[in-house]
Design a protein that fits this description.
The protein is of the alpha/beta class. The protein contains 12 helices and 16 strands. The protein has 2 domains: about 200 residues, Quinone Oxidoreductase, Chain A, domain 1; about 140 residues, NAD(P)-binding Rossmann-like Domain (Rossmann fold, 3-Layer(aba) Sandwich), CATH 3.40.50.720. The strands form 3 sheets. Strands 3, 5, 6, 7, 8, 15 and 16 form a 7-stranded mixed beta sheet that branches. The chain has a 6-stranded parallel beta sheet with strand order 11-10-9-12-13-14, with helices on both faces. Belongs to the zinc-containing alcohol dehydrogenase family. Keywords: Metal-binding, Oxidoreductase, Zinc.
C-alpha cells in the first residue's frame, strides 16, 4: 500500500510500504476512506516528538471501513463504517478504568502515528479496536466525523472542560488555528458571555469571528492592555492556550484573572518560563493534558443530532494520493488559509 512515512526531522514521503496485518486478537484492519493532518504531525516533522522514530507511518485521525478483525473483537465487524480515534485505550489498566485513556499503561493511549504506524495510509491496523473504533451513524458524513477523531475532543476536554468554562465567563483563546477554533466551537456550548480570540494573523482572527468569537485581538495590539478595558478589567476567567510555543503560554498567564484558569492544549517542543513569582499569589490554576477522548461518544451523538457544526473546519480537500501536496498546503497555512485539510480515498 501507499503511506506517508516519516524519515527523520524535515523528511517525509508518500511511498510503498507493506500492508498492515492483524497482530493481536483485539486488532482490526481498517481501509482509510478519509484522513486529515494534525498540527502534531508538523511537530513530529520538526523533531519535537523524539519518541516517533524514522520509518513510522504518521497520522492519528481517520474515518474508514473495517476490512477484518481479530478473534477477540466484539463491537465492530467487517464492513462497518467507523471513526478511528486518536486515542487507543486498552480499557483494562488502572487509568483506562477511570476514563483517563490517554495515559493507558498497557500499550495504548496516543500510539497511532506516534509509537505504531498511523492512519495516513491506504490501510491501518487499529489496536484495541473495541475501544478505539466508533461505528458511525448513516447520517454523519466522513468529513464531519473526521473532526471528532482529535481536534474536537481535544479542545473540549483539555481546553473547555479542564478550563471549567461556565455560563457568563470571559474566555480567551490564544491561537486561532484549528484547535483554537475547535475550542471556540465547544466553549460556546457553555454560554460564556465573551469569547476573545488572540492570534498574530488577521485571517485566522477573521475565521475565529466566523466560528463564534465575540472579539478578536492581534498579538501586536497588546491583548493584555485590551483585556483590561473589558468587563471588570481583571482578565479572563479561562484562557485556553492553543499554539504550543513559550511566548503564547507566557501570554496566557498574563491574560488570566486572579482565581482564573489557564488550560494548555498546545504541544510544546521547547521549555516555557513559568512565572510563579507572580502567579502564586493570584490563585491561578494551570492545567495541561493529552486528550483522553472519553467525550467522543457524546460529541458523536451531538453531531448526529445536528447540535454540533463541523462544516466550517475543512478548507482544502485532496485525494489520498495527493498527501504531499496536502502537507505543503497545511504547513503553509499563513499563506494558503488552510484550517483543516481532508484527504479522501478515490
Amino acid at each position: 500500500m501507499k503511506a506517508l512515512v516519516y524519515n527523520g526531522p524535515g523528511r517525509h514521503a508518500w511511498t510503498d510500504v507493506p500492508d498492515p496485518q492483524l497482530q493481536d486478537p483485539g486488532d482490526a484492519i481498517v481501509r482509510i476512506d478519509a484522513v486529515t493532518i494534525c498540527g502534531t504531525d508538523l511537530h513530529i516533522l520538526k523533531g519535537d516528538v523524539p519518541e516517533t522514530t524514522a520509518g513510522r507511518i504518521l497520522g492519528h485521525e481517520a474515518v474508514g471501513t473495517v476490512e477484518s478483525v481479530g478473534a477477540g473483537v466484539q463491537s465492530v465487524r467487517a464492513g462497518d463504517r467507523v471513526l478511528v480515534s486518536c486515542i487507543s485505550p486498552c480499557g483494562r489498566c488502572a487509568y483506562c478504568r477511570v476514563g483517563v485513556y490517554g495515559q493507558c499503561r498497557n500499550g495504548g493511549g496516543w500510539i497511532l502515528g506516534h509509537l505504531v504506524d498511523g492512519t495516513q495510509a491506504q490501510y491501518v491496523r487499529a489496536p484495541f479496536a473495541d475501544t478505539s473504533l466508533y461505528p458511525l451513524p448513516a447520517n454523519v458524513t466522513d468529513e464531519s466525523a473526521l473532526l471528532l477523531a482529535d481536534i474536537l475532543p481535544t479542545s473540549y476536554e483539555v481546553g473547555v472542560l479542564n478550563g471549567k468554562v461556565s455560563p457568563g465567563d470571559t474566555v480567551v483563546v490564544v491561537g486561532a488555528g484549528p484547535i483554537g477554533l475547535a475550542a471556540i466551537t465547544t466553549a460556546r456550548l457553555f454560554s460564556p458571555s465573551r469569547i476573545i480570540a488572540v492570534d498574530k494573523a488577521k485571517t485566522r482572527l477573521d475565521a475565529a469571528l466566523e466560528f463564534g468569537a465575540t472579539q478578536a485581538i492581534l498579538v501586536d495590539d497588546d491583548p493584555v492592555a485590551t483585556l483590561r478595558g473589558i468587563g471588570d478589567g481583571l482578565g479572563a476567567d479561562t484562557v485556553i492556550e492553543a499554539v504550543g510555543v513559550p511566548e503564547t503560554f507566557e501570554l496566557s498567564t498574563e491574560l488570566v484573572r486572579p482565581g482564573g484558569r489557564v488550560a494548555n492544549i498546545g504541544v510544546h517542543g521547547k521549555p516555557a518560563t513559568l512565572h510563579l513569582e507572580s502567579l502564586w499569589i493570584r490563585n491561578v490554576t494551570i492545567t495541561t493534558g493529552l486528550v483522553d477522548a472519553y467525550s467522543t461518544p457524546r460529541l458523536l451523538t451531538m453531531l448526529a443530532a445536528g447540535q454540533l457544526d463541523t462544516s466550517k473546519f475543512v478548507t482544502h480537500r485532496f485525494g489520498l494520493d495527493e498527501m504531499m501536496d496536502a502537507y505543503d498546503v497545511f504547513a503553509d497555512a499563513a499563506d494558503t488559509g488552510a484550517l483543516k485539510v481532508a484527504l479522501f480515498r478515490t
